[in-house]
C-alpha cells in the first residue's frame, strides 16, 4: 500500500472516531438532560412530600387537640354520670323518707277528719282549703325538683293562671290543686244511706266539674303544655274515693279519658321523682350529643386528610418507579458506551497500518 493510501485510511479512521465521539457526546448530553429532568421531578416531589409532612404534622396536632378535648369531655360526662347516679340515689332515699312522712301525715289528717277535730273545722272555708292545697303542692315541688324546672301561679299568654307548671324539655305540665272536701265529708257523716248516696253523687259531680275545668283551661298544647294535666288532691282519703269504683265507674277513669291525671301526695312525689330522673337523662343526653358531634368532626377531618395522603403515596410510588427505570437506563447506556469505546480502541489497534518513517535513515 502506498503512503498516500495509508494516509487516506488513517484520515478515514480518525474521522470515524471523531464522528463516534460526537455521537457519544450527544448521547451523553441527552442522558444528562434526562437525569436533570428526573432530578427536578424528584426535587418537586420532595418539596410536595415536605409540604405534605407539614400538613400531616398540623393534622396530628389538630388530632391531638381534639383527642385531648374529647377525652376531657368524656371524663366530664363520666363524672357527671357518677354524680348523677349518686344524686338520684340520694334523692330516692330522701323521697322514700318523705313519702313515709307524707303517708303518716295523711293518715293523721284522715283520723282528724273522721274525729271532727279542730283542723277539720279549719278546712271548712273553700278558699282556705285551696290555699292549703297550693302550699302542699309548692312544698312537694321544692323538695324534689330544681327551682328552674317549675313555677307556681304560671300565667298563660291570655292571662289564665294555673296553680303550678312543671317544665320538661320545651313544654310544661299543668298542675292544679283541687280539694273537694264538703260533699266528701257529708257522704262520710250521713246519718242514713239515701243521704249518703246523694252526698256521694254530689261529690262525684264536684270532681267531674273540676276535671272538665282543668281539661278546658290548662291543657293547652298551643301554649306549650303537654296534652295532659295533673289534678293534685292533697288528701289521700279523698283521692282513694276518686280512684275507687262507684256506681258509674271510677272517677279516675273518667278523668283519664279527658287526659286529666288525679294524683295524691304520694303519687305526686313518685311522679316528680320520675320527672327529676328524666331531666337528668336529658342533661346526659345533651352531653352525649356533644361527644357524638366531636367524633363526627374527627371523622370528617380524617376524610379530608386521607385522600391527600393517598395522592402523595401514589406520587412517591410513581417517582420511585421512574427513578428506578432511569437508573437502569443510565446503567445500560453506560455499559453500551463502554463497549463501543473498547471496540473502537481494539479496531484502531488491529486495523490501522504502521505508518512509514518519513525521516531518512541515520
Describe, in plain words, how this protein is organized in 3D.
By secondary structure, the chain is of the alpha/beta class. It folds into two domains: 91 residues; 164 residues, Trna Endonuclease, Chain: A, domain 1, CATH 3.40.1350. It has eight helices and five strands; from the N terminus they run αααβββααβααβα. It has a five-stranded mixed sheet, sandwiched between helices. It is rod-shaped. It starts with a helix and ends in an 11-residue tail after the last helix.
Number of helices: 8
Would you identify the regions where 5 or more consecutive residues have pLDDT less than 50?
116-120, 355-362
Count of spatially separate domains: 2
Largest sheet: 5 strands, mixed
Structural class of the secondary structure composition? alpha/beta
Q: What's the N-to-C terminus distance?
A: 24 Å
CATH classification class of the largest domain: Alpha Beta
Please list the strands of the largest sheet in the order they lie side by side: 1-2-3-4-5
The total of beta strands comes to 5
Portion of residues in beta strands equals: 5-15%
Assign an overall shape.
rod-shaped
What is CATH's topology name of the largest domain?
Trna Endonuclease, Chain: A, domain 1
Q: What is the alpha-carbon Rg in Å?
A: 50 Å
Mean pLDDT: 75
Amino acid at each position: 500500500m502506498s503512503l498516500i493510501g495509508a494516509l487516506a485510511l488513517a484520515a478515514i479512521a480518525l474521522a470515524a472516531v471523531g464522528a463516534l465521539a460526537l455521537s457519544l457526546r450527544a448521547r451523553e448530553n441527552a442522558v444528562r438532560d434526562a437525569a436533570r429532568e428526573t432530578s427536578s421531578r424528584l426535587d418537586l416531589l420532595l418539596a410536595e412530600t415536605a409540604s405534605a409532612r407539614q400538613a400531616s404534622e398540623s393534622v396530628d396536632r389538630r388530632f391531638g387537640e381534639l383527642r385531648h378535648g374529647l377525652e376531657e369531655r368524656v371524663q366530664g360526662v363520666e363524672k357527671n354520670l357518677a354524680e348523677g347516679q349518686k344524686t338520684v340515689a340520694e334523692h330516692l332515699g330522701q323521697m322514700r323518707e318523705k313519702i313515709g312522712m307524707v303517708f303518716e301525715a295523711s293518715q293523721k289528717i284522715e283520723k282528724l277528719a273522721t274525729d271532727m277535730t279542730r283542723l277539720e273545722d279549719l278546712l271548712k272555708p273553700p278558699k282556705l282549703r285551696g290555699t292549703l292545697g297550693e302550699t302542699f303542692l309548692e312544698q312537694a315541688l321544692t323538695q324534689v325538683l330544681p327551682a328552674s324546672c317549675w313555677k307556681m301561679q304560671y300565667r298563660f299568654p291570655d292571662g289564665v293562671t294555673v296553680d303550678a307548671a312543671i317544665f320538661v324539655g320545651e313544654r310544661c305540665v299543668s298542675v292544679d290543686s283541687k280539694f273537694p272536701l264538703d260533699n266528701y265529708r257529708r257522704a262520710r257523716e250521713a246519718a242514713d244511706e239515701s243521704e249518703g248516696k246523694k252526698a256521694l253523687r254530689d261529690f262525684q259531680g264536684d270532681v267531674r266539674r273540676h276535671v272538665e275545668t282543668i281539661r278546658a283551661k290548662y291543657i293547652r298544647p298551643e301554649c306549650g303544655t303537654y296534652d295532659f294535666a295533673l289534678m293534685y288532691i292533697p288528701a289521700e282519703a279523698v283521692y282513694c274515693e276518686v280512684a275507687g269504683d262507684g256506681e258509674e265507674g271510677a272517677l279516675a277513669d273518667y278523668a283519664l279519658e279527658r287526659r286529666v291525671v288525679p294524683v295524691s301526695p304520694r303519687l305526686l312525689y313518685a311522679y316528680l321523682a320520675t320527672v327529676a330522673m328524666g331531666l337528668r337523662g336529658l342533661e346526659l343526653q345533651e352531653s352525649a350529643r356533644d361527644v357524638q358531634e366531636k367524633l363526627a368532626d374527627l371523622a370528617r377531618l380524617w376524610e379530608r386528610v386521607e385522600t391527600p395522603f393517598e395522592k402523595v403515596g401514589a406520587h412517591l410510588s410513581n417517582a420511585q418507579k421512574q427513578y428506578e427505570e432511569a437508573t437502569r437506563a443510565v446503567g445500560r447506556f453506560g455499559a453500551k458506551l463502554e463497549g463501543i469505546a473498547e471496540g473502537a480502541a481494539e479496531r484502531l489497534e488491529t486495523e490501522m497500518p504502521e505508518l512509514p518513517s518519513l525521516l531518512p535513515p541515520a
